[in-house]
Amino acid sequence: MAQIHLEVVTPTGPVVSDEVDIVTAPGVGGEFGVLANHAPFLSTIKTGTLSFRKDKQVKYLMVSGGFSEVSNNKITFLVESAEYGKDINVDRAMRAKERAEKRLAQAQQATEKINRVRAEAALQRAMARLRAAEMARS
After folding, report:
1. Which of 81, 90, 21 is nearest to 51 (CA)?
2. What is the pLDDT of residues 82-95, one digit of tens each?
3. Which of 29, 54, 63, 73 is deepest in the core (most CB within 10 A)?
4. What is the pTM of this model?
């Protein structure tokens, strides 16, 4: 099977650089998949789970916000953060989710929009971590 080169890069450096069979990612317009020799395109990435398969093994990454580009049989993701699902501390992610839900409830009662936006983003990241961890363990 033909492969595509996958690059996942965060501000702290590369997370993945490998030849893979397929990539599935959380685009702002919806989830999308990319195989080898895909037509060129750009997409904005939202917080969620990115998966890729190589040699019948699927790996999961939690990614938060960024961009992707497909060109010349290569897909590159420039994202704010990326964590392998298998490396996510589920207890810590659950605590972060609970904190974000509490902040969101408090922000709903206040008039400060920035606190609500930050709480929503924190909740999305925590939920994406939990999904990636669950998928990696199943």
Report:
1. 21
2. 999 999 889 999 99
3. 63
4. 0.84
